[in-house]
Structure formats: C-alpha cells, structure tokens
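ok, trying the design again with the full structure, not the truncated one.
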C-alpha cells in the first residue's frame, strides 16, 4: 500500500508538523519533488508531495501558488522553515486550509533528502509487495487453470485475489461462470456489455467499479470484475493473467465441443443407417448408458445459428444416458428425454420441432423420417411442435367429408363423453393417450399418471360402452379418426 501523508508525519525522526488541511492526510504520496518555482505545474503529474523553502513566496503570492498546486493535483506541500522564512506565510496556510491542501512544516534540522529517502523506501517496498502479490496471484491462477478447477475455478480464485466478484459471460451476455454473489450483476451489465466491442470498459454497478474485458477467443466472451476500490497495478496484472488463461481454456473447450458434436452427428448417421449395435455401444462407452427404449425421436428445424444455440444449451444441460442429441443434415435430432430438448428449443425461438411415434432402437430410421416430416410440417405451419401422429391424421382427414366425419365422431364417442360427464372416469383422455402411444400400456399410463391396471380397466370400459374390439387395428383407426375430428 502506498505511503500516505499521515504515515509520513508519523515518522518521528523527520519532525514534520501539520499546519493545514489535516483531514486530507489520508492521501497517498506518489513521489517527492523539491522546487522553488512559483509555478511548477508543467513539471508535475499529480500525486506528488512538493517540497519548498518558499524562496519566491510571500503573503501576496502564496494564495495563487497554493491554488496552482491544487489545480495540478499534488498530494500535499512540505514547507521548510528556518531558511527563506522563519514560519510559513499566514496567507499560504489560510488558503491551503480553505482549498483542502495538506501543508506540512519541515523543521530546519530535517533535510529534504531525508523526506525523499523515506518516500523512496516506501515506494520501493510497495512496488516489491505488488510484484510479489502479482507473481503469487499468477501462480495460483495457473495452478487452478491446469488443475481440476477449470474456468469456474479460475473465476472463483480471481474473485478472492481481487477481493471482489467475477462473471464470465458468453457472446450473448449469458453467464458461463460466476463467483459467489456475482450472478445478480449480470442483468445490470447488459447495456455496457452491448457497447463493448473489444478491449476494456470501466463502468459502475451499485457500489462496485466494474472492469469489463474481452477475451482473446474466436467467440466473443467477456470477463467482468467488480471491486469496491479501483484495481491497483497488481490487481490489473492478475486480471490480465486470468483473461489469458480463460481465453486459452475456452478456446480449447470450443475445439473439444466441436469434436464431440461431430462425433454425435456420426452416431446419428450410424443409427440412421441401421448400425444400431455399433452406435449404442459407442454411446455406452462415452456416456455410460443409452436412453431407454422405445425412443420418441425429436427433429428440430430452423436457422443454423438457432440450431447452434440449441446445441450449446443442450451441451450444458443434458446427461448422456438420459438424452442423446446430434445433427442430421439441417436438423438437430434427439431421443430419450425429448421434453428437455423441446423446452430448450422453445426458449431460443425460431425453431420448429417434429416428434415421431415411439419406436424400437432398430426402428430408429423410421422414427427419424417421421420426426423430420413432422418438423417440416411444424415449420410450414409456424408451429413450435407437431407430432407425427397428428400430422399423419390431418392428412387423412383432408380426404373425408367434414360433415360425415363429424357425425361419425359424435356417434362413436357419445357413450364415452356421457360416461365422463358423470364424473366416473376420464375415458376420452385415456383413450387418446393410449392410441398416441400405440397401445403401449406402460408409456400411456405413465403419461396419464395412473397405474397400468387402471388404464386397462378404462379401455375395457371403452370397449363395453361402444361395443368395439380395441384389439382390432381397424377399430383403433376409427377411434383415432373420431378423436381427431372432435379435437381429442
């Protein structure tokens, strides 16, 4: 920490006495500069402790002299007495008190060089401490980066080193990693993030000064560092080190993600080609498992940028043994927990999904064709999701006279609706779900949230009330047609 005027006054051998603006003694001393010039502004940068014997000063010239020193931003004035002046001019002290410039009286016995040495020792010690802190911080960040901590570890370590909070943001301003308590600042920084193209931007968030610095990566990323006090030189060096380490880590991760996505696409191609055993064996070796069959295949169509955003979101959220996704041509294809994929697609916007009927692992090619056809239909209709069963059903309905179809539907479903209106069950909803799942008892009962025996009892009641045999494919088709006409 830089030497302050108060700390310099506290060094008793110097014998310094405060004569004006004692409240400003917390100012740091950048350097010491002795001069007898009446106007030394051209030779000062600000932050200096100026030393003078007042050779050219008197009661008339002192007020203007003090104001010129304030204009250039000096930290304080050391006035040597016993040479040009036995005491400090009264007008100098009064003006300094008025404008808040600390004035220290330097006794005749204290040479200016003693003050210069004291400040020089403190500056050297401060620079050495800064150098040590910088080196230690760089070492800690590097160990974290090459260890198991990864980018998240680097972010948290950096927050501790600068005694603040840190956010790592992606190209959209979304949070990739955050130190504790940092996430609430992400929304507040969005306008500043949008203004930053490259380099560094300093802004304010609440009581924190925030440094936004772009990362040296192909994908635009930004590191945001918030501290209560402006970063000193050591802090700036440590932040620059973190930027370099995070840039390298994210670029390597980008390459790894690209390779993994190409592998996923290859596995999609294997499944589509009927190489089920090879594809599933590879999935197990990479992710420890395969989504449980039967598979509902989801195909998502849309602009390439939106599909990439979907893949990014899925990389961060999904588990390999619960859902598998990859690319097949102009589609993102998923199987397993497809609801997660559909939910992410709806958040991104501009994407249209198609869902196949449940298929076995060996029937994946057929499921993929269904999903792509349904996705194309969803795209044409500007719908977020179309199920293949609905798409296929609508195609048949266009061939049937609407009035005749409605009369048929009302007649066939009337007993079921009457039964449901009495509050004794949910036959229409249960029949719809059961047909959507092609008579698969476990899948349909799970979707309805009832036991499969309950579902079986309901289907027996449907057969009893309508006098139709649900084991007959033709009867199932008739019921499906009636439900489609009635809107389910």
């Amino acid at each position: 920490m830089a030497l302050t005027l108060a700390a310099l006054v506290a060094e008793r051998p110097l014998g310094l006495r405060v004569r004006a603006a004692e409240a400003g003694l917390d100012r740091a001393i950048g350097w010491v500069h002795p001069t007898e010039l009446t106007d030394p502004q051209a030779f000062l940068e600000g932050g200096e402790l100026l030393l003078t014997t007042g050779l050219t000063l008197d009661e008339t010239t002192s007020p203007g002299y003090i104001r010129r020193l304030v204009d250039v931003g000096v930290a304080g004035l050391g006035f040597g007495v016993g040479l040009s002046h036995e005491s400090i001019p009264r007008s100098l002290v009064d003006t300094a008190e008025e404008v808040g410039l600390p004035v220290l009286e330097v006794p005749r016995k204290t040479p200016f060089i003693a003050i210069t040495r004291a400040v020089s020792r403190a500056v050297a010690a401060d620079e050495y401490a800064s150098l040590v802190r910088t080196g230690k911080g760089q070492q800690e960040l590097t160990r974290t980066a090459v260890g198991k901590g990864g980018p998240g570890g680097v972010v948290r370590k950096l927050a501790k080193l600068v005694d603040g909070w840190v956010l790592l943001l992606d190209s959209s301003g979304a949070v990739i990693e955050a130190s504790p308590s940092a996430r609430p600042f992400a929304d507040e920084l969005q306008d500043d993030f949008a203004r930053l193209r490259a380099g560094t931007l300093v802004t304010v968030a609440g009581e924190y000064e925030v440094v936004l610095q772009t990362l040296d990566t192909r994908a635009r990323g930004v590191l945001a560092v918030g501290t209560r006090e402006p970063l000193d030189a050591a802090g700036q060096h440590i932040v620059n080190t973190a930027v370099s380490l995070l840039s390298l880590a994210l670029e390597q991760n980008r390459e790894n993600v690209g390779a993994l996505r190409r592998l996923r696409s290859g596995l999609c191609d294997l499944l589509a080609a009927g190489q089920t055993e090879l594809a599933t064996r590879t999935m197990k070796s990479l992710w420890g498992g395969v989504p449980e069959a039967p598979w509902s295949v989801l195909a998502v169509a849309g602009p390439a940028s939106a599909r990439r955003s979907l893949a990014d979101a899925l990389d961060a959220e999904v588990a390999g043994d619960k859902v598998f996704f990859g690319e097949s041509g102009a589609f993102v294809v998923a199987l397993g927990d497809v609801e997660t994929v559909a939910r992410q697609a709806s958040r991104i916007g501009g994407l249209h999904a198609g869902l196949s009927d449940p298929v076995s692992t060996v029937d994946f090619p057929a499921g993929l064709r269904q999903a792509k056809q349904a996705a194309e239909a969803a795209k044409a209709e500007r719908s977020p999701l179309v199920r293949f069963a609905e798409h296929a059903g609508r195609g048949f309905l266009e061939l049937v006279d609407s009035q005749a179809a409605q009369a048929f539907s009302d007649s066939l479903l009337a007993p079921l609706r009457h039964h449901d209106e009495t509050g004794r069950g949910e036959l229409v909803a249960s029949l719809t779900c059961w047909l959507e799942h092609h008579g698969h008892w476990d899948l349909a009962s799970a979707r309805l949230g009832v036991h499969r025996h309950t579902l079986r009892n309901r289907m027996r009641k449907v057969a009893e009330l309508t006098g139709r045999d649900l084991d007959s494919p033709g009867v199932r088709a008739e019921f499906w047609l009636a439900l489609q006409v009635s809107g389910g």
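Keeping the full-length input from now on. The chain has a mean pLDDT of 86.
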